[in-house]
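Tokenised fold entry reproduced for absentees:

. . .
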Amino acid sequence: MQALRVAREFTMKLLIATLAGALAVAGFAPIGISALAILSPVVLLLLWQRTSAAKPAALIGFAWGLGHFGAGVSWVYVSLHDIGMMPAPIAAIATLLFCAVLALYPAGVGYLHARLQARLGSSAVIGALCIIPAMWTLSEWLRGWIFTGFPWLALGYAQSDTPLSGFAPVVGVYGMSFAAMLAAGLIICAMGTRASRPTLRLRVICASVFFALFAAGNALKQVAWTVPFGPPVTVALAQGNVPQSLKFEPGRFEATLDTYRRLAASGAATLTVLPETAIPRFLDLVPPEYLASLEQLARARNGNILVGVPRREASNGDRAVAYTNSVVSLGTAPHQTYAKTHLVPFGEFIPPGLGWVLGLLHIPLSDFARGPANPQPMQLGASLRVALNICYEDAFGAEIIRQLPAATLLVNVSNVAWFGDSLAPDQHLQISRLRAMETGRTLLRATNTGATAIIDERGTVTARLPAFTEGLLQGSAQPFEGATPYVRAGDAPILLACLALLAGAWLLGRRRPRA
């Protein structure tokens, strides 16, 4: 009976962890109840506090992660089945396996924390305030790097509209994740457990540090890390709303060209931006008169048009040609090209040994070549140096800052139609907002179906088109110069701080007398 009762209690813990992980998704866009992205980890930490063994702690972390990613990135199924035409059962299994792999990261945090906590005896405060925030932050960073990385739903993103966003230009989104987990740890320490009630002094200290954390973030939000450079630039961002199911249909090509030419002609901006693969055909196969007409439009306004279009190298005998997901400039500035560097597995390149997956997917242009590792901003004017990135490249803050501080404006072109009417477009917009905060730069987003938006240097969306509508978003964008602390140092400071905290906890554990 005792074993059965223990099994039931542990099953309940797993269920609570799963529900808490799923609930945390409501802390992110589009729902945006940011407190849930702190309260959900509070529940996870409580469960870990009541689970001393490493393996059960890992299972609880895995359950939390499965709920979190199962709810938060369920749009992967839409991409595989609805757009990629993968059979529904296989797409469902593939999505579940993908979420299970992502869930291994919080599972690892639970396992390692329990192991290290055992060395620290009863020092739960160190675990909640040092070990878990440090391990969690490092695990998010690893998730954004291993197997080309998938940093989606890092906890820091959910704090984009709270005082903690003030830490973005200093330590980036991973620093914000650390702050969120530290806030959760402070709540835990103030609450205590049934077996160990915190003293009034400890509660006062925790409450003071909690409010000081948010006050510091709010103070940092008042700092102007960058300064305007030159006059504002008039911009126009085209949203063609071309259905993904028809985008690459041969009979649809001319209609797509007409849509984007009409949208470009309807504006009167110095900088016009068309989305990722707005022209769904290799650049050398696009009618020259069409490109000439776009260039004429740009020159008539003494400006430039940025066009998303795939490119391929000139044929070299019988050798296979490489092609890139690119953006090209047309207009008064010399012609320039940006080629996407960080490619999406299966969507844009096939990992070695997994070519058989192509038989299950029907995704055009699914084997791109990578662009240069260190791209240079496009020089489109005296004060207009544009750092381009394509699709989910802007999920990688450390890669965006490679073009800074030289760049004065950020531009992202995307085609999030791959994920339908799901959480993905709003989550992606929130990610873009963090890139603007980290760099102190205005960021323009031109997308096929949404979210097309203008984001100022503080991460505020100043203008946006409704999703799944055709339109041209017109406004102004202020170029900026200067470098935030994050632009100068990247993720190194927060990662080193986390390693130092873990090293300190380890040394403290080694010095404790053993029973």
Observations:
- The chain has a mean pLDDT of 90.
- The first strand starts at residue 227 and ends at 228.
